[in-house]
Amino acid sequence: MTRLRCRAGYNASMWKTLRYYWIAARGYRLQPWNSPYLQWRFETFLGQEAADLNARKFLHLSWKYRDKFASFVDWAAQRRHLMRRRA
Predict the structure, then answer these.
(1) CA–CA separation, 54 and 65 (whole Å)
(2) Close Cβ partners of 27 (under 8 Å, ≥ 6 residues apart)
(3) Across the chain, how many H-helices and E-strands are there?
(4) Is the pLDDT assigned to residue 36 strictly greater than 90?
């Protein structure tokens, strides 16, 4: 039962991340490192470490800070849910 719960939680987190990515990378879905919005978001979040993003650096930073990005995506999903509830 615990394994199923962990897997369900992982799946929910994965879908939230994919949903955020799908919205944020619009127009740049196959090359997200070229997205002005995602570049701005990375630079705001990571500072100088995210300057001059390319594919390798984008993937490296995404993996290195995956836990922090996961909490950001959870926060964004919560905000989105609240906004939809108000409408």
Answers:
(1) 16
(2) 35
(3) 4, 0
(4) yes
What is the pTM (predicted TM-score) of this model?
Answer: 0.70
Q: How far apart are CA 41 and CA 68, in angstroms?
A: 13
- Residue-wise pLDDT tens digits, 50-85: 999 999 999 999 899 888 888 888 888 888 888 888
- Residue 27: CA atoms inside 13 Å, Cβ hemisphere, count? 5
Q: List b or e across 61-86, with b for residues whose CB sees 16 or more CB atoms inside 10 angstroms.
A: beeebeeebeeebeebbeeeeeeeee
Q: Which amino acid is at 64?
A: K
What Å distances lie between residue 52 and 35, 41, 45, 47, 75, CA to CA? 12, 13, 14, 11, 26
Give the max Cα distance, the chain: 45
Instruction: Report the length, in residues, of the chain.
Output: 87
The yes-or-no verdict on residue 5 having pLDDT over 70 is no
